[in-house]
Amino acid sequence: MMPMRIDAHQHFWRIADEGRSWPSPGLGALYRDFLPPDLAPLLARHGIERTLLVQSLPDEDDTQFMLDLAWRHRFIGGVVGWVDMKGADAPQRIAALACDPLLKGLRPMLQDLDDDAWIDDAALAPAVQAMLDHALVFDALVLPRHLEALLRFAERFPALPVVIDHGAKPGIRADGLADGLTTWRRGLARLAALPSVHCKLSGLVTEAGPGWRIEDLRPCVDCILALFGPERVIWGSDWPVLHLAADYAAWIAASEALLDGLDYAARGAIFGGNAQRLYRID
C-alpha cells in the first residue's frame, strides 16, 4: 500500500504579526494572510493527507500559533518551530515546547543571519541535546555558502537528524544553471555522506523563477537523488512561497515528472513515507 502523501514543507502566516518583515509589500503574491482554509482545498484536490507546517518567523509566539493551528486542523501532521538555540535557557524552552507532541522539529533561519558560520558552534550543544532528548528534527534553511558550516555542525552532532530545506537553494535560472553549481554539488555530497542528513525536494521552482521548465530543474533533482537516494529525500511544496513561480498543481505535476523514473516504492517514500518516518507523523 502506498504511504500517505505528505507535503513536508508549507507555511501559514498573518501579515500583521509583530516582528514580521517578510513577506514585504513588494511581494504582492505573498503579501496577505495565508491560513488553513486557503490550503485545505488544494490538499484535497491532490490527495495530500498531511502537511508539515514550518516556521517563517524567528519567534516562539509564532511557533505557538502554528501548534494551535495544528490542533484545530487535522491535516497538519506536525510543526517545525523556532527557539533561540543559543539562548541561555534554550534547553528549558525546547523542553517546554516539546510538551506538545505536534512539535516535530526546530529551524533557525540560517540564511537570514549575518554570520554564515553561526551554526558551526559548540555552544549549541545544550540545545542539540534537548532536541535529541525530545526526538526533534533539525531543519536547515541554508544557501550553498552555508554548507561547509552545516557539515561541521552535522559532524559535531551525528545523532541529530538534519534535513536540508529546498535542496540548499541551488543557483537555478529559468535559462539553465547559474555559476556555482559545482560548489553546491560538492558541499551537498559531503553532507549526504552522513547518514543523519536528509534533503527536501522543495523550493526549486522559486529558485528557477518565473518561466521555469522541468528541464531547468532536472539536473538539480537528479543530483539530489543520486547523492541522498530515495530513502533520504522528502517532498514538499513550500506553499505559499511557491506562488512566486508556480501554483500547487504545477509543482506536483513537475515533481511527478521528475520522479517518474523511480519505482513505486521509491516514489512513495519521497512523497510521504520518509517524512512520516522521520518527523513521526501519524
Quick one: biggest sheet?
Answer: 8 strands, parallel
- The radius of gyration is 17 Å
The assigned CATH architecture is Alpha-Beta Barrel
Give the tally of structural domains: 1
Give the H and E element order: EHEHEHEHEHEEEHEHHEHH
Kindly report the CATH topology.
Answer: TIM Barrel
N-to-C span:
16 Å
How many strands? 10
Q: What is the CATH class name?
A: Alpha Beta
Shape: globular
The CATH superfamily bears the name Metal-dependent hydrolases
Percent in helix: 25-40%
Can you tell me about this structure?
The protein is α/β, with parallel strands linked by helices. The chain has a single domain, classed as TIM Barrel (Alpha-Beta Barrel), CATH 3.20.20. The protein has helices at residues 36-46, 60-72, 90-97, 125-133, 147-156, 181-192, 204-208, 214-228, 248-258, 264-278, and strands at residues 6-10, 50-54, 76-81, 103-106, 137-140, 162-164, 172-173, 176-177, 197-201, 233-235. The chain has an eight-stranded parallel sheet. The longest helix is centred in the C-terminal third of the chain and has 15 residues, at 214-228. It is globular and about 45 Å long. The two termini are 16 Å apart. The model has no long low-confidence stretch (mean pLDDT 95).
Describe the secondary-structure layout.
Layout: E1 6-10, H1 36-46, E2 50-54, H2 60-72, E3 76-81, H3 90-97, E4 103-106, H4 125-133, E5 137-140, H5 147-156, E6 162-164, E7 172-173, E8 176-177, H6 181-192, E9 197-201, H7 204-208, H8 214-228, E10 233-235, H9 248-258, H10 264-278
Parallel strand pairs: 1-2, 2-3, 3-4, 4-5, 5-6, 6-9, 9-10
Antiparallel strand pairs: 7-8
Helix pairs in contact: 3-4, 5-6, 6-8
